[in-house]
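Support reply, case 0932

Customer input (verbatim):
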Amino acid sequence: MIPRMKPHRDLSELEDRLRYRFRKIDLLEEATTHKSFMNEGRRLGVTRNNERLEFLGDTVLGLVVAEYLMVTYPKYPEGILSKFKGRVVSEPTLASVSRALGIGGFLLIGKGEELTQGREKSSLLADAMEAVIAAIYLDSGLDAARTFIIGHFRSVIEQTVHEDSIQDYKTDLQEYCQRELETLPVYQVMDQRGPDHQKEFDVAVLIRGKIYGEGSGKSKKEAEQKAAKDALSRLARTSRDVLQPGKNAPS
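Our regenerated output:
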């Protein structure tokens, strides 16, 4: 076992919260040192802040989240997965996880940041979260970083997928079609039945004149959402070449 370097401060409580024990504790010290502390820190022998680790952590986090989304949610096309990933690795999400772990209480920050409640700033907390991820990656490799990220971000990922896809399939489909196919979906009521107070609608969604999804509901909105969901599922199974602009566009 690699001996732990003598720390400048006790971070064992933070390690407990992270559920990870560092072999090189100086990496965690660096990850929890903000650049605003450097003027004061130099007198104490502190020579590094967490900016470089933040840079690396952003990449490691993005890789692990992208891999997890691709494997866990195979029915979604690339465009939708990209949107999910963007929201999971965003500053608000990183800051939220950082707060849950109590990282702010272990940060070394300058007096100016202390006076302006820097420990609660989302930008500082998000940066520190990325730096911690990089520290774990450098300490033990990608598998350890993956275990840490999935362990602490899984619930956030699942919530993001649930809220952003299930509740608004129409937006997902529109964004996908604009970005990937350079067109917009069109919704068409195919049938409606029942008395006015109890109508049911059948809706189809068309992409370049071809039906890609169908749905039924007690309102046009509900039926359109179901049709959009059906279309997203079909698009995930369809070769992208079939729908590329100018290539075999369906009539």
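We compared this against your earlier run and they match. Two observations from our side: The mean pLDDT is 87. The beta strands are 186-193, 200-207, 210-217. Please reopen the case if you see a mismatch on your end.
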